[in-house]
Fold:
Amino acid sequence: MRKEQALLFELGAPGRRGCSLPQPDIPVKPLDELLPAKLRRGIPLALPELSEGELVRHYTALSTRNHGVDSGFYPLGSCTMKYNPKVNEEAARLPGFAFLHPCQPAESVQGAMELLYRTEACLAEITGMKRVTFQPAAGAHGELTGMMLIHAYHKSRNDQRKRVLIPDSAHGTNPASAAMAGYEIKEIPSDGRGLVDLKALKELLDDDVAALMLTNPNTLGLFEEDILEIAAAVHEVGGLLYYDGANLNAIMGHARPGDMGFDVVHLNLHKTFATPHGGGGPGSGPVGVKEHLVPFLPVPLVERGEKGYYWKDDLPLSIGRVHGFNGNFGVVVKAYTYIMMMGAEGLRQAAADAVLNANYLMERLKKSYALPYDRRCKHEFVLSARKQKKKGVSAGDIAKALLDYGFHPPTVYFPLIVEEALMVEPTETESKETLDRFAEVMEEIARLAEEDPERVTSAPHTTPVGRLDEVRAARNPRIIWDGDEGSE
Ligand SMILES: *Cc1c(COP(=O)(O)O)cnc(C)c1O
Structure:
């Protein structure tokens, strides 16, 4: 049953209060003296009047309406919604970090600079890059920064190139970022394996190609086996390789973009390295580069000298700043804490467990759903609801039905190359019991799609609201209470 939550304005009663203030013990001036009548409102403001208990219950009820990783399974593909240990939050809130001012002189923030320096070293090691900037505020911002670095690199060689190649399975931000940096985009088709079509790629390569943007494993969760050949072919025509490392969950500690031949990589600390996300941030999208791109990095960089850490500003070829100060520092503190807590062995294990969990679920679910690219997957896999669609049940319907069982749905309709896509990423921290329960529910929904499709297409039945008009909610949101129930 749906449970309606009344608005604050509909609760309480006139005169009810949530606190008792003592009578003032100093003389209070008459109102007219404090504020002339013509400046005062004619009718009192219609504020809600509630007791403290009513207020607390209202907000507590609202706070449980969001589904998050702390409330249940959240297998959103391409977006690593993993459980993040709370100790990272504690570290970020230590007063020595939380109360710094970004304009403080370097001598007074040596600890924070050491943390940046050390985290940079960790991420450089994990990705196989030379240096890393922490300025970009999120993944897409990292992509734009990376594209600007590539642009600056070619420009410094008097080799202006126009085109960036991107596979058709790429995350939507890739073409957007490359276009924003002024590049023309050319799409590379995937082949029957769900991997980059090597022949098609080679046909597109010429000396106008600035870069290839790729993620590996790709968004189908599949490892690009030909990556060394791909990298060699791109480098041969003078292009660079950009690695979208938003989700490093599958490979950290096992394989490094740098070793695969990539020149630039961005990471999402808010996906792989212990900052919860969803709901708008803050995030952090550090960008790592190989030696030949270091001169173009945003300034300043943290360096260690004889007298301690200092900011290095004199990079004449730098693309400049892409963010105020040093990006979202608190997120870097969480990532550093996480990396130190896990250690190299722990990170390697997390990746292995993420891949194991994904393959376990994939093997079971491919019995009830189509699996267009049936290969060993990495941290995620993409099912298709095309069998269910024949009964009138779409991927979107299945996503809605999952809500009734207390699960957040997987990503749907992405990547675009899979019809009725359901993209599942279970992550490393989920137990076998949770995975089994999710599989049972998915099987139950597949059975309902056969026997009682109406039950699925009318879902959800138990959430506070049913199917919203998403277009109207985005284009014409009604966010002000005007006391008139019936109005639009
Ligand atoms: C999430 C994601 C991005 C974008 O990251 P934001 O922090 O949301 O800007 C880019 N690429 C891939 C593969 C992603 O999963």
